[in-house]
Amino acid sequence: MTVAHERVAGSGAAPTLTEALHERLRQDIILGVLSPGAKLKLEKLSRAYDVSVNTLRETLARLAADGLVVAEGQKGFAVLPVSTEDLREITEMRQLLECHALKQSIAAADLDWEARVMGAYHKLSRVEEFVEADPDAYGEPWEAANEAFHEALISNCRSRWLRLYLRAMYDHSRRYRMLSLRTRPFPRSQSAAEHRRILDAAIARDGERAQALLAEHILKAAELAAPVKPSAS
Question: Per the structure, how many domains does the chain have?
Fold first, then answer.
């Protein structure tokens, strides 16, 4: 997510065509509609998204700045491939940023923050009951509820820059999770137990324990979402 995108998205103004296209393509990449490593042919995408080639080229350049698209010189653009090394770096950065944001958020905790966290957890716990049985139908609602819970936990963090860069890391890790949901069983009981422990520590204002649990949770989620190496033929 670029700084410019955050400013427009948070301004309350109606999105321009470029902004709307940026968000649509970003979501399609994160959700796996556009596969990792896929070549982004301008003419084909122009027809599919009903936009001009120039608008599409500008948007893909912005997505390259976001780190979701790779500019291949004269060859055009491609969706960023997935790799174990890429996920490891994303995970380490997310642990660093999100745990620090959680520390700040708990230090500034109040009843409004507690209500946000409890409400987000309640919705997440209900969706988790369904996603294991039908990930195709409930994968996206679960991810939205999961994101809302993590966002609620750090919602009292006042650092704009910390939240901005964390948003970028969260989106990249989310792409791996959504790809994993398509191919692997969802570990509902593990996920639910981890979220409950994080909730309890946060509500108890135990910042040190909450950070440790969150770091472990982020790592375990990454391990589950790690790309599967193709088997040798």
Answer: 2
Q: Assess whether 65 and 92 both reside in one domain.
A: no
Q: Is position 230 within any domain?
A: no
User: Is residue 185 included in any domain, yes or no?
Assistant: yes
- Domain assignment of residue 21, given as a range: 3-79
List residues bridging with 79 in a β-sheet: 69
Domain of 110, CATH number, reads 1.20.120.530
Residues 13, 17, 18, 21: is their CA dihedral positive or negative? positive
On the question of pLDDT at 226 being above 90, the answer is no
Q: What is the CA radius of gyration of the chain?
A: 18
Torsion angle of C-alpha atoms 41, 139, 116, 152, degrees rounded to 10:
-50
Helix, coil or strand: residue 40: strand
pLDDT tier for residue 110 given thresholds of 50, 70 and 90: very high
In this structure, are 49 and 115 located in the same domain? no
Dihedral sign of CA atoms 22, 24, 26, 28 in order: negative
pLDDT at residue 168 tops 70: yes
In tens, the pLDDT along 5-59 reads 433 344 455 678 889 999 999 999 998 899 999 999 999 999 999 999 999 999 9
The DSSP secondary-structure symbol of 69 reads E
Q: What is the largest CA-CA distance in the chain?
A: 58
